[in-house]
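Dear U.,

Please find below the material for section 3 of the report. The protein was modelled together with NAP; I have listed the sequence and SMILES used, followed by the predicted complex structure.
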Amino acid sequence: MSDLDLYHIVLAGMLVSALLSFISLFFVSAAYGRHGRPGWGPTLSATAGWVLMEAPSPLLFAALWWTGEESRGFSAPGLVFLALWQAHYLHRAFVFPFRLRGGQTRMPLSIVAMAVVFNCFNAWINAHWLYVLGPIRGSEWLLDPRFMLGCLLFAFGYFVNQQSDHILFSLRKPGETGYKIPQGGLYKYISCPNYFGELLEWAGFALLTWSPGALVFVIWTAANLVPRARTHHRWYLEKFLDYPPERRAIFPFLY
Ligand SMILES: NC(=O)c1ccc[n+]([C@@H]2O[C@H](COP(=O)([O-])OP(=O)(O)OC[C@H]3O[C@@H](n4cnc5c(N)ncnc54)[C@H](OP(=O)(O)O)[C@@H]3O)[C@@H](O)[C@H]2O)c1
């Protein structure tokens, strides 16, 4: 079996698992954060859980970049791909978990394990395409409309994701664990702008890399975050009688 055949098999497997997750997450929410509940096995602190489950993404991606082909890895676009990936994932793995308020809450080890498996496959389908299998992108790619538009989308998504998470963190004083109605930024329109921003980021990454791995990643992200946003949104409506009725779950004015 060739390397490319194996790559296609992994992509197909990830698409099938994205579809299965999408369907099942409408019926069973992942048991962490406000939807945490017993029955998911041993737990660890949310801070430790986030570090453990997200760290494989920047580390494996960097290792695959380093061991990939020099002509791809050290081209200007190859370095931009690396920089954007790391801008998101170094923050998610090593900064975000220490900013959690109420980070003493517990997270099931089973969820962490599933996320580690996903993040390893995901780093591989992205980096292996960019640094081994995909087309060699020279500096002219930096002026391609797909690259430029993708960068804008990624940057906007990154800003929205960071801003929205920051608003959530500022709702609690150190040591607090309760929930409040978030205000400001895109919370004016939707309950989960952090998820919306995350989706825009990876849609931008798929566009700027023009890579099948990144396309599968954004599909996976939607399969995971759209049902969770729906669950969060319903939870808000049930918990707060004065919850703004015009807010949607994840897509402004739409859903
Ligand atoms: N790429 C992907 O597939 C993927 C998957 C999952 C998450 N993510 C990203 O990871 C980040 C965190 O995700 P998450 O699912 O943990 O997000 P979340 O449910 O919105 O929670 C984020 C943090 O804010 C706190 N929080 C949320 N709503 C609050 C409220 N109304 N009042 C006070 N505190 C509140 C949460 O506390 P509690 O933990 O106590 O609820 C948690 O510490 C997001 O940026 C998301 O986009 C990405």
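For the text of the report, you could mention the following: The longest helix spans residues 212-239.

Regards,
Y.
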